[in-house]
């Protein structure tokens, strides 16, 4: 059964959600730094302000939250039980924006990778993936 919470409580929860320096993003940053990769953060001159940018490698990495960016098949990509139409529209816009920004980056010659929040829970696998992306 969907969880129904008050509008005030939902607003408080949404206000507390950060856009930068999230837990999953920090995990990716720590691992990338530990394997010797150096990066830039949230470059405003690039479409979508990628979370990590590796200029020499022409690689942009976005660390997406499974809930907000609708990770297909992930249990973390649930839909709130209240105001379902609003959430459906919100998630649709998020996914469309993500695709648009990825296409813009690729058109500018960048490689784009998405690391999902749930993937940050397995540091060994994440480290292997980052090594493959950064040191082919």
UniProtKB/TrEMBL annotation:
It is an enzyme of class 3 (hydrolase). It comes from the Bacteria. Keywords: DNA damage, DNA repair, Endonuclease, Hydrolase, Nuclease. Coiled coil: none annotated. InterPro entries: DNA_mismatch_endonuc_vsr, Restrct_endonuc-II-like. Its EC number is 3.1.-.-. The keyword Acetylation does not apply. Signal peptide: none annotated. Gene3D superfamilies: VSR Endonuclease. The keyword Ligase does not apply. One of its GO terms (molecular function) is endonuclease activity. Belongs to the vsr family. May nick specific sequences that contain T:G mispairs resulting from m5C-deamination. This is Very short patch repair endonuclease. It comes from Marilutibacter chinensis.
């Amino acid at each position: 059964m969907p969880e129904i919470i008050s509008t005030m409580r939902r607003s408080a929860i949404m206000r507390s959600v950060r856009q930068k320096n999230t837990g999953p993003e920090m995990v990716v940053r720590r691992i990338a730094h530990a394997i010797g990769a150096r990066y830039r953060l949230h470059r405003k001159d690039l479409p979508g302000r990628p979370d990590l940018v590796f200029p020499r490698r022409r690689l942009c990495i976005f660390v997406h939250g499974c809930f907000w960016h609708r990770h297909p098949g992930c249990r973390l990509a649930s839909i709130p039980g209240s105001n379902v139409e609003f959430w459906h529209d919100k998630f649709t816009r998020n996914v469309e924006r993500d695709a648009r920004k990825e296409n813009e980056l690729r058109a500018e010659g960048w490689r784009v990778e998405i690391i999902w929040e749930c993937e940050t829970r397995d540091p060994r696998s994440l480290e292997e993936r980052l090594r493959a992306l950064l040191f082919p």
